[in-house]
Amino acid sequence: MNLNVERILIIGLGMIGASIALASRSKGIKVTGYDIDSNSVKNAFQNQIIDDEASSIEQINSKKYTKDIDLIILAIPPKQTLDVLNSLQEVWNTDTTITETSSVKNHIKIEGVSNIVLSHPIAGSDQSGLLAADENLFKNKKNVLCNPFNSDKDHYDKVENFWSNALQMKTALMTVSEHDLIFAMTSHLPHLISYALIDSIRLSNNDVGDNAGGGIKEFLRLSGSNPEMWRDIFMLNRVDLIKALAGMQVSLNNLLELITETKQIPDIFSHLEILKKELDEIKSYKEDKF
C-alpha cells in the first residue's frame, strides 16, 4: 500500500472540512468534496476550496469510485459520524483509509473493519461554515488519534503521515476512554460552563451593557459556538462530562466556603491567605499541564 496521500475525499464542508481542504490543496493534494448541502459543495468548488465534487453518499460508497482515493475524512457533527461510517461499508477493508474529526468517540462502535482510524484535530473557532475556512487552522496544533478497531498498521501510518506532513500537526495516540475523559475536562466542560455563565447573567435581569471585560468576552466566544454540535457532544459524552462537572462542583464549593469564611480555618491563617493558596494551586496546575 502506498502511504503517501495524493487524493482525499472530504465529507462535510463546514469550517473544519473546508479548512482541511484548503491546507491539503496548498500541499498539492487533490481534494474531492461532498456535503449534504449541495450549495456548500457548489460554493466550495467555485471558490477553489475543492477540486472535484461528489454528488451523494451512495456514489461514494463504491470500491470503484474510491479506488483512486487515498483517504476519506468525515468532518461532520459527532452524532452523524457513526451513521455515515456505516453507510460506507463497500469501502471498508479496502486500500482507501477512512478517518473522522469528532471530539467525542465512545459512540463510534464498529466491528470487522481494518481501515478506519479515528482522529481529533484540536483546532477550531466559534465561527462555522464554509466561509470560516482557514488554511492555517491546523498548523502546529495537536491531533489525537485513536485506533479502537485495531486497524492495519499501514492505514494508521497513512492517517498519521497525513496529519503530520500535509497539515503540519503534532500527533498523539490515546484510547477512546482516555480521549473522551480528557476532553470532557479540557474542552466540553469549559463550553458547558460558558453556556451556564451567560445564562446566569441573563437570569439576573441585569443589563451589563458594554461593561464586559476580557474574561467574560472569552466566555461569550465559547458560548457562541454551534449549539447543535455542542448539544450532541454534551449528550454523547455525558458520562465523562458528569464526572468532570462533579469535580468542578467540588472545587466551586471549596472556593465558596473560603470566600464566605464558612470553612474551618486555623487561627494562624486568614481566609484570604487560604484563598490565595487555593488560587495559586489552580494557576500552577494550569501552567504545568497546559
Verbal overview:
This protein is α/β, with parallel strands linked by helices and 290 residues long. The chain has two domains: 168 residues, NAD(P)-binding Rossmann-like Domain (Rossmann fold, 3-Layer(aba) Sandwich), CATH 3.40.50.720; 112 residues, Orthogonal Bundle (6-phosphogluconate dehydrogenase C-terminal fold). 49% of the residues lie in helices and 11% in strands. It contains eleven helices and eight strands. Strands 3-2-1-4-5 form a five-stranded parallel β-sheet, sandwiched between helices. Strands 6-7-8 form a three-stranded mixed β-sheet, covered by helices on one side. α7 crosses α8 and α7 packs across α10. The longest helix has 28 residues.
